[in-house]
Each structure stands twice: as structure tokens, then as C-alpha cells.
Design goal:
The structure is a single chain. This protein has 10 helices and 19 strands. A hairpin with a 2-residue loop joins strand 18 and strand 19. Helix content is 23%, strand content 35%. The strands form 4 sheets. Strands 1, 2, 3, 4, 7, 10, 11, 12, 13, 14 and 15 form an 11-stranded mixed beta sheet that branches. A 4-stranded mixed beta sheet has the order 16-17-18-19. The chain is an alpha+beta fold. The protein folds into 3 domains: 85 residues, Pseudouridine synthase; 133 residues, Pseudouridine synthase (2-Layer Sandwich); 60 residues, PUA domain (Archaeosine Trna-guanine Transglycosylase, Chain: A, domain 4), CATH 2.30.130. It catalyses: uridine(55) in tRNA = pseudouridine(55) in tRNA. This is tRNA pseudouridine synthase B.
Length: 312
């Protein structure tokens, strides 16, 4: 018997450069022949790397996806500021070449110490952040002024290497691990300002999002060219990758699938409830005298064969 949720899960895409996250979603809708596709966390058009995408029931799981930490490799160009804090924008200021030439890796690394740990960061103005229902970059391109408030971010790892001098600039490679909501473009901008020469991002590659890394990632072209594109993780694999598991019986799995709760077991935090047959039925959390679901991956209404692929 075919699994009605056999086409549901996550695709970890290795996003190519100069495509928006929405572009990737649009292409995967065609590749997987479904409108039910969404992404978890925007990746800038100039960036490449890990973009987590939900397909079918996997789109519902995206809201529960734990991705507290993201990692990147980046190249920061010191000596020139741009309107977008990356190479997409026009240059708006250039430093004195003598000041830039005086920089070495040790000086840059010393300035970077200010951005290691937890601090308040003003996001890049040209961003997808919403102001009154419209994205900041849309308002700026319409000539509106945008004032984004600083927000608390954490950079747990910031390693700099290979400072390469150029024509009035210095390019520095960086490896960054940070909290969700951190802008690497803003880091490049702020590091350049801290050194008094300005800066912007010239390359960015996301290497991991939470539990998902480049080893999981599939090139977008491969997914588009495949006759039957594959998921990176089934809905069952997605839940058990992101959460510790809790073993339940098949009968208890059927109860969770119908929205019922189980007797408490003294467990802490959210767990993926998994039956002996390997079904990850739901995410559950204990509250008071109940072990109740916070997300039902396999609701009984979707598991009954009805219509195309068993879905109503």
C-alpha cells in the first residue's frame, strides 16, 4: 500500500547565485507538480547554499523546524561601502587607499572581536523585513526612508582568514556561525565602519541551517532535470532529524493522528512520537496531565485513501 504522505517532506536545495528564494520555490512547484511548496528562511539572491524547502505536508512542518544556528562562508571587501551592503548595490563611499593599505589580518581580526558574542545589530536596509506590510527593500526603491530598529543577535563563531589586498580594497574571508536573524551583509558593513574604511559583502555561501548542511543539499538543476525529483528527507525523517524521539505504540499513534492526547510520561521538551513501524506521527509536548501534540504530521484525514495521492 502506497504511503499517502510519500511525496511529503523536505528538500534541502543548494541554491544557485542570483535567484531569490521565491524563484527556487516557483521552480520546485513545477518540478514536483504541486503548489504546496514553501521555504524556511530567505537567502539573498547573491548567496548560494543551503535553502530548506517543504513539499506538501512538509510545508506545515516548516513552522516547527528548529534552526537556531546558521553557518556561512563569506568574503568581506573592506574599503568600499554600497547602498545594499553587498555587490548588488551601487558604491556610495570609498576610503582613502592609504588607510586601507595599512590594514592587515591582525588589525581586522581585532576589530572583529566586537562582533563575537551577543550584541544589537541594525539589519541591512535592503532586506525582506516588513514595515507596515511591505518589505524594506520595496519601500526604499519607491523612495521611502526606512529606519530599521536594532535587534539582538548572536555570532558564536567568527573566524577570519586570508586578507588579500587589491586596488584600494582588502578582501577578507570569513566563517560565521550565528543566530537566526543575523545579517552577514550588516556584519560586513559594521566591520568596515569599525575600521573606518567601510565594507560590503562580495560572496556568501550558507553551509548549514540547524540540522541541515551541504551534505544534504541537492543542486537545483538536478531537481529540475530529474523525471521524478527526490526529497532530501521524508516527513518521518524530517521530524526525527530535528527532534529527539519518543517511542509510542501503533495504537497511541492512531490516537495522536485523530487529535487525542496521551498520558504523561515525565518527558521534557518537544519530541517526535514514532511508532514501531517507523511512522513519525506527531510532535508532542507534555503539559500538566497530558502528552499532547503540537503538530500532527500524519493526521488521520490525510492517511485515508481519498482522491489523488490519498489526499482530500
Amino acid at each position: 500500500m502506497l504511503d499517502p504522505l510519500g511525496t511529503s517532506g523536505l528538500v534541502v536545495v543548494d541554491k544557485p547565485k542570483w535567484l531569490t528564494s521565491h524563484d527556487v520555490v516557483a521552480r520546485l512547484r513545477k518540478a514536483f507538480h504541486t503548489r504546496s511548496v514553501g521555504h524556511a528562511g530567505t537567502l539573498d539572491p547573491m548567496a548560494t547554499g543551503v535553502l530548506v524547502v517543504g513539499v506538501e505536508r512538509g510545508t506545515k512542518f516548516l513552522a516547527h523546524l528548529v534552526a537556531a544556528t546558521k553557518s556561512y562562508t563569506a568574503t568581506i571587501r573592506l574599503g568600499v561601502s554600497t547602498e545594499t551592503d553587498d555587490t548588488e548595490g551601487e558604491p556610495i563611499a570609498a576610503a582613502d587607499p592609504a588607510d586601507v593599505a595599512a590594514l592587515d589580518l591582525a588589525a581586522v581580526d581585532a576589530a572583529a572581536e566586537e562582533f563575537r558574542g551577543t550584541f544589537d545589530q541594525v539589519p541591512a536596509k535592503y532586506s525582506a523585513l516588513k514595515i507596515g506590510g511591505r518589505s524594506a527593500h520595496e519601500l526604499l526603491r519607491r523612495g521611502r526612508e526606512v529606519d530599521l530598529p536594532a535587534r539582538r543577535v548572536t555570532i558564536s563563531r567568527l573566524e577570519l582568514s586570508d586578507a588579500r589586498p587589491g586596488d584600494g580594497v582588502v578582501d577578507v574571508d570569513a566563517e560565521v556561525s550565528c543566530s537566526t536573524g543575523t545579517y552577514i551583509r550588516a556584519l560586513a558593513r559594521d566591520l568596515g565602519n569599525r575600521l573606518g574604511v567601510g565594507g560590503h559583502l562580495t560572496a556568501l555561501r550558507r553551509t548549514s541551517v540547524g540540522a541541515f548542511g551541504l551534505d544534504d543539499a541537492i543542486p537545483l538543476a538536478e531537481l529540475e532535470e530529474a523525471e521524478r525529483p527526490r526529497l532530501s528527507l521524508s516527513i518521518d525523517e524530517a521530524l526525527t532529524r530535528c527532534y529527539p524521539t519518543l517511542e509510542i505504540t501503533e495504537e497511541e499513534g492512531d490516537m495522536l493522528a485523530t487529535g487525542k492526547w496521551l498520558e504523561p510520561r515525565g518527558v521534557k521538551g518537544t519530541r517526535a512520537a514514532v511508532t514501531p513501524s517507523g511512522r513519525a506521527v506527531a510532535l508532542v509536548k507534555e503539559s500538566g496531565k497530558r502528552l499532547a501534540s503540537t503538530f500532527v504530521a500524519r493526521p488521520v484525514t490525510l492517511m485515508k485513501p481519498s482522491g489523488k495521492n490519498g489526499r482530500k
